[in-house]
Automatic annotation (TrEMBL):
This is DNA-directed RNA polymerases I, II, and III subunit RPABC1. One of its GO terms (biological process) is tRNA transcription by RNA polymerase III. It comes from Pseudopithomyces chartarum. Pfam families: RNA_pol_Rpb5_C, RNA_pol_Rpb5_N. Its main location: nucleus. It comes from the Eukaryota. Keywords: Nucleus, Transcription. Coiled coil: none annotated. HAMAP family: RNApol_Rpo5_RPB5. Belongs to the archaeal Rpo5/eukaryotic RPB5 RNA polymerase subunit family. Residues 163-234 form the RNA polymerase subunit H/Rpb5 C-terminal domain. GO terms for cellular component: RNA polymerase I complex; RNA polymerase II, core complex; RNA polymerase III complex. Residues 10-114 form the RNA polymerase Rpb5 N-terminal domain.
Amino acid sequence: MADGESKARQEVVDMWRIYRTTKEMCRDRGYNILESECAMSLAEFESRFSTESGQINRTQMNFSAIPSPDTIQKYTPPATNKITSPEAQIGTLWVEFNGDEAFGMKNLRDFINHLINGGYYSGIMVVIKPLSGMAMRALRAASGLGEGPKGGVEVFLEQDLKINITKHELVPTHLLLSTEEKQQLLKRYRLKETQLPRIQVTDPVAKYYGLRRGQVVKIIRKSETAGRYASYRWAI
């Protein structure tokens, strides 16, 4: 096989892995994703997304996902005297695979406009290379100013999705606590959230699960003596 053909073949395999990991990530965040999508074979992936020339059409890989009823409940704050019917802090997600070698301001504006016009709560963009410095600053500013979709925009590099890091034997199980479960935890142990061990939202596992600042995650590890034990981390 010629070098060019070998490189093209490897790109197909890489995109297949990236697509499956992205589907698994959305499923693990609580979105309704079919198991068949997560377990898609390479042959089926090629038949769905490859062009006549054998290249992968990334735009055909784009998809939306809605959260499950359990996830919606988990992301719905408890009712209060002032807010008797609180809104869920999650909604329809749009995932897009961008094939441009450079992702700049125009790409970001177009993506945010697509999310807003489509009524999506949040968006994930999978890119080949890191965002330009200007686009990264604009993304952070938009999040801080409340511009764009309510749930914000996340960006992942393709190379970071070739392998699902949560499947590694050294990565323990992570379970997001609802607001109510978080309050019960703090009350039970008479703690303030700032007294909990912390996890950065930029941590690879935290980013995989889409943890937001202020959320608490339960981490279950295996123990030779206790079987399993749980610890908790506060996302910052």
